Amino acid sequence: MDDAVRAFLTEKVAQEPYARHLGLRLVAMDTGYALVEMDFDENKQNIHGLAHGGAVFSLIDEAFEIASNSHGIMAVALNMNVTYMASPRLGTTLRAEATEVHRTVRTASYQIRVTDADGTLIAMCQALVYRKKDKAFAATTSPMAKEDVAAGEGALST
């Protein structure tokens, strides 16, 4: 993995307010790959006391974001299809592992698996990104050009 891309992603992930709020932790990354963890606590429960789907989705999205931008080209989400397999027990650590399955010049597909501390499969996701022409790490404050934001491009973080 390119050192400049690694440094950029490491810094941006550490500064990301939403990821910090959820307690998401980047464990490992490489080109086309990311591993992110999150503790499942009472703040991430739904009305039934089970894992909130939004919390699990956020964990998936963070791993997807890192893996898909690891080539140094800005990637934005086009589609994410999540299947929830099981509910984790309170207090466990959840791990999302994103792996690149296929990549072209303009799109790339990823598989993201969420497991608990015992290795139980909690959720699976098939995801697709659009790879823009912009370098992900070209700007110091944001990889997105202001014109793209004004035009509504790059609405998703991944």
From TrEMBL:
Thioesterase domain mapped to chain residues: 48-122
InterPro entries linked: Acyl-CoA_thioesterase_PaaI (IPR052723), HotDog_dom_sf (IPR029069), PAAI_dom (IPR003736), Thioestr_dom (IPR006683)
Signal peptide boundaries: none
Protein keywords: Hydrolase
GO molecular function, one term: acyl-CoA hydrolase activity
Record has Cytoplasm as a keyword: no
UniProt xrefs under NCBIfam families: unchar_dom_1 (TIGR00369)
Protein name: Acyl-CoA thioesterase
